[in-house]
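Worked example 2:
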Amino acid sequence: MTYAEAVRTTWAPLRPDEGVHDIVRYATLAANSDNTQPWRFTLSPENIVIAPDLSRRCPAVDPDDHHLYVSLGCAAENLTHAAAAAGLRSTLRFEAGAVVADLERATAQVSAQFAAIPNRQSTRTAFDGRPVSNDLLRSLEQAGTGEGVAVLLLTDRQQMQRLADYVVEGNTMQLRDPKFMEELQAWMRFNEGEAVATMDGLFSRASGNPALPRWLARPLLPFVFTERRENDKYRACIESSAGLAVFVAEHDDKAHWVEVGRACQRFALQATALGLKYAFVNQPVEIPGLRRQLAAYLGLGGRLPDLVVRFGAGPELPKSLRRPVAQVIA
């Protein structure tokens, strides 16, 4: 299968006649940490259970599985929209470390957020710098607010520059960590062949980088993937964005991490429906000390920031891939 064929298969429109299996495929189109796809689905006539796949953990960058459970929440949000379009009402609950979606027959409902699912992507490149209207900001804020989760939208350039400082500081610390770099490189897919072989990971062209054979890309990586180059890129990307969104949960536990994922996925789908792009700049929440500093800067009291996202108008990039449904069903 070529990369283009894999993209068409992965991101094809929902096929309701294929039942819950295609609903699961749509769930897997959600955002997730480094495209690790850390989930397992268990199907029954009454519900779908989304459990963590601990074999796909990223202990260097995500030692407490925060991003893993956020990823489960993103998938759960996609699932609710796909199920509704297929004539199933889903009620979500967090139980025994997994997300349970109880299903019942209902009138099919197709929402703008459902229609955005096959078009959503995390766009890791510069945007065009245009501001977003207050009406669109209100729409994004409404979508990004969840049960026990708030979203702070920052469009003030001075505040955005201050957050860029946190991103650069966190990025520098991570690039100097050998375990982080080893883990990151394990999930890099340098060309179409590698991306199709695994159907996961960080495909170079999906991040705006050229595709190269591994024998060339690996020795070149230390020369092109440098602190200065990456930090300059992040500053430029934030400067080119219309704003930043910081997601904040009331409590720092797995159930709320799932709700953060749901809220972030709704935000992403709403942004996509409005013709906007977004990308994660999570370095400040991945370093415990910086996470507390950022909380103090934002005046969050006892709460901690969970995700940092930049948004704005930007280009379309090549799509990332997802594993076949058969590989994610337990």
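Residues 3-120+320-328 form a domain with the NADH Oxidase fold (CATH 3.40.109.30). DSSP finds 14 helices and ten strands in the chain.
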